[in-house]
Amino acid sequence: MSTSTFFLDLRSAYQAELDDLTSDSEGKDVLRKRLTEKRKELGFLLQMMEISPEMVAVVLHQAFRFKSPAVMDHLLAQDADNLPEWDSICDTIDIAPWGRDMVEMMLHQPMGAWFMTIAAALEYMHHKPLTAQERAQLSGPAEEEEEDQDEVRNERHDDNHTEDHEEDEADARAREDAGNDWMVEQGFDRKE
Q: Which residues, other chains included, contact 13 with Cβ-Cβ below 8 Å and sequence gap of 6+?
């Protein structure tokens, strides 16, 4: 079963969020410290569950143990509008004791059950390597399209390079002349 585009995109966003939290400006590993800080901000983060689930899901990083990979693989194949209910998958997931209060808090939110399904999927994907097909999906058409656009830009650049260069030189001369004229008006000698 292949992972849906919905989950592949979320996986990338979740990984980026974890990467941002992992190290400080000196390259030191500060993931544990930053996750602790983020968990203290859960009340605020709950507002973002629906629009940026990956930013909230990181608070549950390493809180899940998956008892049925088949259930999770089936979940990952679904699009956003076909997700199974949290109640139908929660029996296949153990939640670490430290995460249970947070999960309860999340489930009391209007989109809490939906979010918990997403959070579990994100954490499951984080520990599962991408398949060749998933890597191709992630780098497929968008990357090829970007390469095509770069090629077109390079061709245009080559065609217009001479004209652009001459225009740039003329603009630079005009700016320099205007600057010299202004300096003369201010009482300075003309720069030669």
A: 52, 54
pLDDT in tens, 131-190: 677 677 767 555 455 555 555 555 555 555 556 667 767 776 777 776 677 666 777 776
Q: Collect all residues with Cβ–Cβ distance below 8 Å to 191 and sequence separation of at least 6.
A: 180, 183
* Angle, vertex CA 69, rays to CA 65 and CA 57, nearest 5: 50
Q: Output the six-digit token pair for 85.
A: 């209910």
Q: Give the closest residue to 108 by CA, choosing from 76, 86, 82.
A: 86
DSSP 130: P
**Which pTM does this prediction carry?**
0.68
C-alpha to C-alpha distances, 81 to 14, 38, 77, 78, 85, nearest whole angstrom: 20, 28, 12, 8, 11
The residues with which 93 forms a beta bridge, in sequence order, are 66
Q: How far apart are the first and last CA of the chain?
A: 74
